[in-house]
Amino acid sequence: RVQVVESGGGLVQAGGSLRLSCTASGLAFDTYDMGWFRQAPGKEREGVSCISWNGGTTNYADSVKGRFTISRDNAKNTLYLQMNSLKSEDTAMYYCAAAVLVVTGYNRYTCGGSGYWGQGTQVTVSS
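RESULT FIELD:
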């Protein structure tokens, strides 16, 4: 019933940009925290960025801070990830998911997927 669909991945040169989109249906999108996660071959899945249901809180992995920006358009049930200054290390399958964003300390947060995942979109950055 719940459908989460990512798009926007592709092959880009290092230093380039991509914007990923994620459209969700079958759930009350504007009540869910949402996140982007990625997994590269031979590596564990890692959180990239999360945004609270109302957009008031965001967090980013240290590796992408200053380069990636998460946003959402609740009217369109869509989540975005703007990726700039891409590096070869960003090569991975990127997944969108409903998430739980948790306060763990002063201005510190963790975020984990909550079970509603998209199929992923591949991002490949060439040098």
